[in-house]
Amino acid sequence: MCAIHGNRGVVYTGPGKVEVQSIAFPELSLGNRACHHGVILKVVSTNICGSDQHMVRGRTTAPSGLVLGHEITGQIIECGRDVEFLKVGDIVSVPFNIACGRCRNCKEGKTGICLNVNPARPGAAYGYVDMGGWVGGQSEYVMVPYADFNLLKFPDPNQALEKIRDLTLLSDIFPTGFHGCVTAGVGPGSTVYIAGAGPVGLAAAASAQLLGAACVIVGDMNPERLAQARSFGCETIDLREDGSMEDKLEVILGEREVDAFVDCVGFEAHACGCNHGKEAPATVLNSAMQVTRAGGQIGIPGLYVTEDPGAVDEAAREGALSMRFGLGWAKSHSFHTGQCPVMKYHRPLMQAILFDKVQIAKAVNVQVISLDQAVQGYADFDGGVAKKFVIDPHGMVA
Fold first, then answer.
1. How far apart are CA 175 and CA 87, in angstroms?
2. Alpha-carbon span 43 to 49, nearest angstrom
3. What is the pTM of this model?
4. Is pLDDT at 2 greater than 80 in this prediction?
5. Where does the signal sequence lie (predicted)?
6. CA 20 to 30 Å from 363, out of 84, 177, 235, 296?
């Protein structure tokens, strides 16, 4: 019955270019075999991510023709034979990392590095370069495998639609920002520096508040994004201005270091101060070691890649960055990198949303757009607007 539907999706067609194109309607299959454990979703909402922008800018080896999108919330319209605990009509959040639920890493809760869903390396994601070739979900319909294990069912579909602007962020940036804070050791009374005021940085800042931080400081070079951080109670540092980070922290805290540091920038980082227009891919990591207290923790949810065709030097093209690692060793820092294991966090964060303990959509400034507006959304996001674009393919978002 589902095969009568058409399908459209956002397709990467080359550096700087995306198009909305007709794409194949999803099937419950994996290559040449049936996917009895999967479901087909009618996409309720699907978000544009900063990680997508790395590909669209041509800063990865993403192939032309890739259907984008790893932040997906949908309604089940078809279930595979072996799906036991979900049914047609359920509205579900899809973790961006695909996990089999069977391998050693999945059984240890490390769903971001599943061993069975990507032949090239541990870990997979929808619509992303080197992440297993899975079709992305910035589309009208998408197939999700291992559904019973992966999907988070919302308890009440009507309530889910009422709060969809918040719940749509459970697929990636809210858990990712929260994970960055948890791995940085954020807790009650701590002081926290968040590098980057893009959507993940803002989600991390809101997460730090949820975790009980006493002071959350967000640094960026974009005045509009810094204003967005201040709108929900963060302190901010404009990194275009000259002066040392320690001096700027002392003005806010009365101290020259923070308890916890979260890198929400990643490999396309730029230098601070008078050199702020110059790319310096290790600058955030070096700053983290400089301003985090001895014995502190550094969470790194920001994306770093093994291949960057547009890097500033030959070493960075292979992901080799010039880090002052001896400083981190001397200060007994701990570093935590890699994909967020979304399933570790998405249920409790859903509860925080449903019981009004956090207003994450307001914090990241969600703007809902249609599928046909996705191309402009990518352009605006690349221009640095302080918004999180949520695509509504079927007009289901109230």
1. 25
2. 16
3. 0.95
4. no
5. none
6. 296
pLDDT tens digits for 309-345? 888 888 888 888 989 999 999 999 999 999 999 999 9
- At residue 208, φ and ψ (nearest 5 deg) are -60, -40
CA-based nearest residue to 275, from 265, 283, 287, 285: 283
Share the mean pLDDT of the chain.
95
Strands 215-220 and 235-238: parallel
Answer whether 176's CB lies under 8 Å from 299's CB.
no
Pairing outcome for strands 235-238 and 8-14: unpaired
Residue 3 has pLDDT above 70, yes or no: no
Average pLDDT over residues 274-299: 89
DSSP 139: B
Q: What is the mean pLDDT of residues 124-147?
A: 97
Q: Which domains are assigned to the chain?
A: 2-172+341-391 (3.90.180.10), 173-337 (3.40.50.720)
Number of H helices, E strands in the chain: 15, 18
Residues 6+ apart with CB under 8 A from 298: 184, 260, 261, 262, 263, 285, 288, 289, 292, 328, 333, 334, 335, 336
DSSP letter assigned to residue 19: E
Sequence-distant (≥ 6) Cβ neighbours of residue 108 within 8 angstroms:
none
CA pair distance 300, 183, nearest whole angstrom:
8
Q: Which amino acid is at 144?
A: V
Q: What is the pLDDT of residues 154-179, one digit of tens each?
A: 999 999 999 999 999 999 999 999 99
